[in-house]
From TrEMBL:
Domain of life: Bacteria
Keyword Flavoprotein: yes
Protein name: Bifunctional protein tyrosine phosphatase family protein/NAD(P)/FAD-dependent oxidoreductase
Originating organism: Novosphingobium aureum
GO molecular function: FAD binding; hydrolase activity; quinone binding; sulfide:quinone oxidoreductase activity
UniProt domain Beta-lactamase hydrolase-like protein phosphatase-like: residue ranges: 3-105
GO BP annotations, alphabetical order: sulfide oxidation, using sulfide:quinone oxidoreductase
Domain spans labelled FAD/NAD(P)-binding: 123-235
Keywords carried by this UniProt record: FAD, Flavoprotein, Oxidoreductase, Quinone, Transit peptide
Length: 526
């Protein structure tokens, strides 16, 4: 570890590990700032573990990542404030120290840091304007239209992520899956268009990337998880060209459909690889949905028999709820898919069209004409660097009440919380009313009174026209929401297809995001 002193009271260095702390203390440093996002590369120490070790030695820490969508300029005001508030001298680090030096330089020209007090206060502060955050805000305002509620969300666009698979299958257009955030923001909510730099739950405060501080009576964290593309060597550089795609990004889903059409037109011997990383991930069925919709198109065109289709799954089963596996295995056999369990994508060479997988037998490299890659996924880095996080970097909540296990006035839901359910929009739709009821109870000084049962749903598109409608609660218990005579969820169904293609999008835009809790009333806590 080489420390460079770049100005009085401030040094920068490369990656810091817990074993470096004694040397840092010996060098006279009293606080540490991490400017490197967690999960940039395999084996990278987690900031939460470093912070715990530093705290035990009396060293203060802060997490201000530069990367994963945040620039040095974004973090400059928060860095300036951190320097003003934390003990000097301070040591900042990233992978090499360069980002820390850049953010320090940007901080020198940033506005004067805010030191105390609050720039704004709201009774309820929702962090994250995705599916879970907007649905919760809408459910709260449906119950109390005069509630002082704010939503922190930097993006101008709001995405219907379950629709990305249908874009990749040529069923939806990209425009079907996006609306302006201003259009979906619930009436009565204050929209704070900013990113969060850090949480201060002991002070009931959130610090924004511009240095402003927002306090609250009750906090709702709905930030989602992070797609860690960088954990697969070469993947980010390869995306969108050379046959490499992913339905997990809005801008890439159309390329999936383009590749399906290109391979169909070429025919002959083609190899298509589809991957699934280790859990937890958003919608664990989505990797195979992309595969089945592609195969359905090739089958219809009469070219599938000449194709090699492989499913490289880091796990050991096709789907986690056994009742749905037989129908999926019939689909696998129908399309002639070669299942590769225990096979994890670790590297991609786009120009050479080569993908490398880690298996029990060692690394295996496969050529491809099309690669649909699903990225590893991790907790949101701002959450992971806070006292709200569990060991995995997710908001640590009670799985039934969604209330934080240590902070009684904080709640978490959606893809970024610690509940053991499937991470799907259907789960967020069921969680939002529960969170809303329990938030209002907290505001009234009462205990939670509503319970989430772990419900999740995964409409598995086995071909263009049929879906296996998987619905389940905690423990993988099958939990159909419609009568069996209408939809038999364990078998492919055309009615389930129409539910996915025709009914669910308007239910999302005009129901879930408007606080209309159709078929998902909050259950009482027993």
């Amino acid at each position: 570890m080489q420390i460079r002193k770049i100005e009085p009271g401030l040094g920068v260095t490369g990656q810091v590990a817990a074993q470096d702390l004694d040397a840092i203390i010996a060098a006279g440093y009293r606080s540490i700032v991490c400017n490197r996002p967690d999960g940039e590369e395999p084996g990278q120490p987690d900031f939460a573990q470093l912070a715990e070790a530093a705290k035990a030695r009396g060293i203060e820490t802060a997490y201000l990542p530069v990367g994963a969508g945040l620039t040095a300029e974004d973090q400059a005001p928060a860095f300036a404030r951190t320097r003003a508030e934390m003990p000097a001298p301070m040591l900042a680090f990233c992978r090499t120290g360069n980002r820390s030096e850049k953010v320090a330089a940007a901080a020198r020209s940033a506005p004067a840091p805010l030191r105390a007090g609050s720039d704004a206060h709201h009774r309820v502060l929702v962090v994250g304007g995705g599916s879970a955050g907007i649905a919760t805000a809408a459910s709260l305002l449906k119950r109390d239209c005069g509630l002082d509620l704010a939503v922190i969300e930097p993006s101008d666009d709001h995405y219907y992520q379950p629709g990305f698979t249908m874009v990749g299958g040529g069923v939806f257009k990209p425009a079907d899956t996006v609306r302006k955030t201003a259009k979906v923001m619930p009436r009565g909510a204050t929209w704070i268009r900013a990113s969060v730099a850090r949480f201060e739950p002991d002070d009931n405060a959130v610090v924004l990337c511009d240095g402003k501080r927002v306090t609250y009576d009750v906090l709702v964290v709905a930030l989602g998880n992070r797609l860690a593309w960088e954990q697969v060597e070469g993947l980010e550089a390869a995306l969108g060209r050379n046959g490499v795609t992913s339905n997990y990004r809005y801008d890439l889903a159309p390329y999936t459909w383009q590749l399906v059409q290109e391979l169909k037109a070429r025919g002959g011997a083609q190899r298509a690889l589809f991957t699934q990383p280790p859990m937890p991930i958003k919608c664990a069925g989505a990797p195979q949905k992309a595969m089945y919709l592609s195969c359905s198109e090739w089958e219809k065109a009469g070219v599938l028999d000449g194709f090699e289709v492989e499913f490289h799954n880091a796990g050991g089963v096709l789907f986690g709820v056994p009742e749905y596996v037989p129908a999926l295995m019939e689909t696998v056999e129908r399309y002639g898919i070669d299942l590769k369990f225990g096979s994890t994508l670790v590297a991609v060479d786009g120009p050479s069209r080569q993908a490398t997988f880690r298996t029990e037998a060692g690394e295996v490299t496969r050529g491809f004409d099309m690669l649909h890659a699903v990225p590893p996924q991790v907790g949101n880095p701002v959450v992971a660097g806070s006292a709200l996080a569990d060991a995995g970097g997710y908001v640590e909540v009670d799985q039934n009440t969604l209330r934080h296990v240590r902070y009684a006035n904080a709640f978490g839901l959606g893809d970024g919380c610690s509940t053991g359910n499937a991470k799907t929009a259907a789960a967020a739709r069921k969680q939002a009313p529960v969170a809303a009821v329990n938030v209002l109870a907290a505001l009234a000084g009462k205990e939670p009174c509503a319970s989430y049962d772990g419900y999740g749903s995964c409409p598995l598109t086995v071909d263009r026209g049929h879906i296996v409608l998987a619905e389940f609660t905690y423990g993988g218990k099958v939990a159909p929401s419609l009568p069996k005579w209408l939809i038999e969820g364990t078998r492919p169904s055309r009615l389930a297809w129409h539910l996915k293609a025709d009914a669910l999008p308007p239910i999302y835009w005009h129901g879930m995001l408007k606080g209309r809790e159709w078929l998902v009333p909050p259950a009482p806590l027993l």
